[in-house]
Amino acid sequence: MAFWKPGTVAPGSLVDREAEKDSEAAIVTFSDAKYSTMTMSEQRKQLPVYKHRTEILYLLENYQVVVLVGQTGSGKTTQIPQYLHESGWTAGGRVVACTQPRRVAATTVAQRVAEEMHVNLGMEVGYTIRFEDCTDPGGKTRIKYMTDGMLFREALMDPLLSQYSVIMLDEAHERTLYTDILMGVLKKILKKRPDLRIIVSSATLDAEAFAAFFSTNRDPKDKSKDNTAILSVQGRMYPVDVHYLAEPTSNYIETAIQTVFDIHTKEPAGDILVFMTGRDEIEEVVSEIRERATTLPPNKYAEILALPIYAGLPTEEQMLVFEPVEKGARKVVVATNVAEASVTIPGIGFVIDSGFVKIRAYNPQTGMESLTTTTISQASADQRSGRAGRIRNGKAYRLYTRESFEQEMRPASVPEIQRSNLAGMVLQLKALGIENVLRFDFMTSPPAEMMSKALELLYSLKALDNYGRLTIPFGMRLAEFPLDPMLGKILLDSQAFGCSQEMLTIAAMVSVQNIFVNATSPAAEEQHRRFGVLEGDHITLLNVYAAFITRGKKSSKWCANHLINFKAMSRALSIRSHLERYLVKTLGLTGPSQLPSCLGADGSRVNDPNEATVKIRKCLVSGYFAQAAKIAPDGTHWISALEARPKGARALSYSPTKLWMHPTSILFKQTPQWVIFHEVVETGKGKAYMREVSAIEPEWLGELAPHFYVLNKQL
DNA sequence: TGAATCCAT
Question: Which Pfam families does this entry report, sorted A to Z (predicted)?
């Protein structure tokens, strides 16, 4: 059976593919080098998805949207794009895209597929992630792995995504912000491009919902009008025995530790993975296990090795969890949610699940994000348990009752789009020509209040006009910038302030996390202070960066000496150079040398330093004016400047806000009267901490944002 | 006066 691909003149034929197989098999006998060729192709056929190859291709002929329910280990991500390529979907210069929620996934999967196809990565098979385009500039790339956010951005350049014949939205059940928006955008594109095909790869739970979202069939009785189909593919997973607590625990940390020792003393070999919510808990569990392990009779039980893993941990320490332990010893990895989907630790036979996770949620009333410990969803619980069944039969110990799982946990987590700051996304939708964003077809709509808040901010940044239309050229330029709108505005305005070089550095530095290694230690604080200035964190970061490229010669040794995270600095360097390229292009300049600086090229202050820091901080105010605060009378905290706005000019939904200086800020022990800040994080204890803070003069708010702080005498 | 789930552009 041959398949016809809409819009193609050269359908692939099974004859060709049979010939390929023959030649491969024939060559095998000649050399060991080619032997690996056969094993790779044999390996491909062993994957569960291979059995569904014909069916997948058939469905794609007949349905615009195929929802693929595929469990872990089915091989869908690496194989389906290859099947499409082999059967002609990439003929005529067209491309098959496969989106991933994470950068690492996009790069590693592309690497693997390039190996399977015996091509160089970046040619027939490539990937695109932010700031890294590993595809063929000559247009030879046929299979493209990319982050979901990148595909969304590509729609800005080409609203019909015309080069793609098939787009596979992988891991759609994770419901990331960009996957969700892409679904709405693709639904619109499908109306104009009947030749386009979409594969939505999802977990069992929401397959019907995805299909219903894309369905254009208004007549459920007439199946011939269906444009969507659902297909299930088995995974390669071993069964996992799930155990619940008989009674709820009041202390899951202690219960987790006890369960570790129960497993260790009663169960056969196999490493243990423990899910906790954050660094503090992880360190506590790890040190308790280490301590109690010393009391076990050494000749009776194997050695037990407890290791932490979380995103903020330095890379070298993270790597330890992937190393095999000595024979006979048992590894206990205590992890945050990184181990649920982002990181796979080999050799896990047992999972202990606290049932909790920290999630970030945006509060439109205060414009702040909070970080709170929440009960996980049933889908998360199953995903966590599944981590025990990757090598052989496993066991999962859930530190909650079956009743709690069935009655208290929601089936799936709240989609990201319902708990995010939507300003950047709304701006990009406007740039895509979607004027009425409130009526955009979302798979799950965000709360109306979050949309209003986003529109209000964009209006105050002058990216939207009185009618809610994108302003030209400013709003359009801002939308094209791959940054948060407030940060984007300071870069676009930096030319007028004469400090573009400095703002590029600052924007890059606030975009990476954990510049200081182990920032809470006294030694790290001391190093931090060496770069510190009273103007605040932004200029301190500028000093760190300048020292890194001049005195530090971009070396890892210098970083180690100053307790600075080398990986973070390298990333900042790369982000900066990309932002620089964008800024040069957006401003219509010929090269980076045309971008003004208020300091010397090497970061030393050749001009009046005071004048320079004023320029930089004023420029920050031009983008961050909505995030300003004034010190409280008792000097212990700050009050959001929104409080100082006249009633009529206050945010639609406004509540007065106390803000605290984050202990990692260089201004922690200082009392600047007025500040602006990059972000606020509200912790579980209900305290809102400002991060990346700079001292400002209140007059600047009136001068640079008169439309925002209307006639305010209090400033 | 004291603190960091995790991604993405």
Answer: DEAD, HA2_C, Helicase_C, OB_NTP_bind, WHD_HA2
Nucleotide B2: closest residue by CA–C1': A663
Q: Do residues A469 and A434 touch, judged by C-beta distance below 8 A?
A: no
Question: Which residue ranges form the domains of chain A, and what is each CATH number?
Answer: 14-233 (3.40.50.300), 240-414 (3.40.50.300), 481-621 (no CATH), 625-704 (no CATH)
The pLDDT, as a whole number, for residue A340 is 86
- Per the DSSP assignment, residues forming a β-bridge with A67 are A200, A230
Contact A572, A509 (CB under 8 A): yes
Residue A246: exposure state from Cβ atoms within 10 A (0-12, 13-18, ≥19): exposed
Looking only at the bridges linking them, the beta strands covering A638-640 and A658-661 are: antiparallel
* Residue A53 host element (H or E): helix A53-62
Is A120:A136 a contact under the CB 8 Å cutoff? Answer: no
Tokens of A437: 């964003």
Distance A359 CA to B1 C1' (A): 26
A322-336, A591-605, A633-647: the lowest-pLDDT one: A591-605
Q: Is A248 left (phi over 0), alpha (psi -120 to 50) or beta?
A: beta
Q: Quick check: bond before A473 cis, omega within 30? A: yes
Distance CA A371, CA A685 (A): 10
Confidence at residue A15, expressed as pLDDT on a 0 to 100 scale: 27
Cis peptide before A346 (omega within 30 of 0): no
Instruction: Tell me if A143 sits within 8 A of A82, measured CB to CB.
Output: yes
Coil, helix or strand for A501?
A: helix
- Within residues 105-164 of protein chain A, the ones with CB less than 7 A from nucleic strand B are 129-130, 147-150, 153
Bridge partners, residue A145, by sequence: A98, A127
Name the nearest CA neighbour of A166 among A234, A91, A226.
Answer: A91
Q: How far apart are CA A643 and CA A381, in angstroms?
A: 42
Q: How confident is the model at residue A391 (pLDDT cuts 50, 70, 90)?
A: confident
In this complex, the answer to whether residue A277 has its CB under 7 A from any atom of chain B, a nucleic strand, is: yes
The pair of three-digit structure tokens given for residue A34, joined into one six-digit string: 């080619």
Q: Which nucleotide is nearest to A148 (CA to C1')?
A: B8
Reduced 3-state DSSP string for A463-487: CECCCCCECCCHHHHHHHCCCCHHH
Whether the CB-CB separation of A458 and A426 falls below 8 Å is answered with yes
Query: How far apart are the two ends of chain A, measured CA to CA in Å?
Result: 76
DSSP assignment of A189-205 equals: HHHH-TT-EEEEEE-GG
Strand B reaches within 7 A of the A658 CB: no
Residue with tokens 């392990």: A293
Q: A687 is written with which tokens?
A: 């305290």
- Chain B: nucleotides below 7 Å from protein CB are 1-9
